[in-house]
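> call design_seq(struct)
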């Protein structure tokens, strides 16, 4: 069965409900989890020569705070159920690639992630990190969809 789950989160309510389900699954399987968050790199936005230094620092501080909040939720959900959990935060403008790299580097055997269920033109314009992970992953991916998200 599965021993190590990677649980990517963007901090949304759907990601939180997915994390809760991933923790339940991990507990039943006797697996550990790694919560994962890919922050935007912000380098293109924050390296603009006219942008004040404090604005750059504020962007970075806010992105880090949001990432920490998302990962803390996963860690607390795991601790509440007695599931071993660590967390990883990276900066990447290609979240799907960062997810796949984290799963490989940490020897995860399952990725459990949310899908917002975008369709049609919205899906084409915005893209889907979940779809990209499904397309390129060499390990199983469990996609969680919820009516509550």
């Amino acid at each position: 069965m599965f021993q190590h789950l990677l649980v990517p989160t963007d901090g949304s309510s759907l990601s939180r409900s997915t994390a809760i389900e991933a923790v339940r699954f991990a507990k039943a399987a006797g697996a550990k989890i790694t919560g994962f968050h890919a922050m935007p790199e912000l380098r293109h936005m924050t390296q603009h020569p006219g942008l004040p230094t404090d604005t750059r620092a504020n962007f970075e501080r806010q992105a880090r705070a949001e990432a920490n909040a998302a990962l803390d939720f996963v860690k607390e959900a795991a601790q509440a159920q007695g599931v071993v959990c660590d967390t990883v935060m990276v900066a990447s403008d290609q979240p799907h690639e960062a997810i796949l790299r984290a799963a490989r580097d940490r020897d995860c055997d399952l990725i459990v992630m949310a899908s917002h269920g975008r369709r049609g033109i919205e899906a084409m314009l915005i893209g889907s990190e979940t779809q990209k992970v499904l397309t390129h992953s060499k390990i199983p991916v469990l996609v969680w969809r919820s009516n509550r998200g």
